[in-house]
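I am writing to request your help with a piece of structural work I have in hand. I set the record out below, with my sincere thanks for your time.
___
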Amino acid sequence: MRDQAEKLRQMVKNSIRDGTGNIIKSQSSKTRVITVTSGKGGVGKTNFTVNLALSLANAAQKVLLIDADLGMANVDVVLGYSTKYNMLHLLEDNISLPDVVTDGPRGIKFMSGGSGIYELANLSNHELQHIIKQVTLFDNWADFILVDTGAGINRNVLNFVMAADEVIVITTPEPTAITDAYAMIKAYANNQGTAPVNLVINRVLDNEEGQSVVDKLTKVSSRFLGQQVKSLGVVYEDRNMRQAVKQQTPLILSFPDTISARCIDNIAHLILYGNPVAKPRGIRGFFHRFLDMKW
């Protein structure tokens, strides 16, 4: 298994050939891979991720959204779309990347990757090369790849978090959610994560409540973990968000002028123009790190 892992890492590191055998030049990727995670379920993580993708798309960014929640994948439900295939279907002769990737609103693209990614460890070298060769072509297209993880801090979720260029931890002001968000940050720090960790407080009633949670998490993370955490902002409690979920139309599309939509737009603006990652490693680098941890 170790030999297989080493061969796979070389596949990802090296130049990849297209269907005609020509080399796709290995260049520094401009694609930023951001994992959005939470310590617990029910904090609005998937809704936030989908709406962040649309807000970035409104700012003329090309966005690929990967649903990596193995147990409760529901990005397609939030978007009001149905998906038939996941990443693993790329091994089938009659299935290609356009079949697996669904075109969403405002030009975003999304795919279910959860179960397909977890099965990569059981594939042959030839099968791995076939999948990675196709998926990493997004480094030539996407500005952002958002990875929506499952909830909790199990090993599979943590692998996604550790592999990203940037991490967003989302929580609510509820004490249990704050505790679990801290547990995620602690697990990341204990595993010597090096990517920037960002924080979003969802469903706040007012700015004071949101700032209180930010202060608490950033201070304890710095003091007890030595982990710097940057606040990206808050998203206010908004009944329009619940209405958008019922309609299966994302908030940014159905209620673009509501307060929570403006909050998400502000967060997207900060991601774009705040402190961009110096050297994004793209989806090729993401898979290299993810698979390195899987073995």
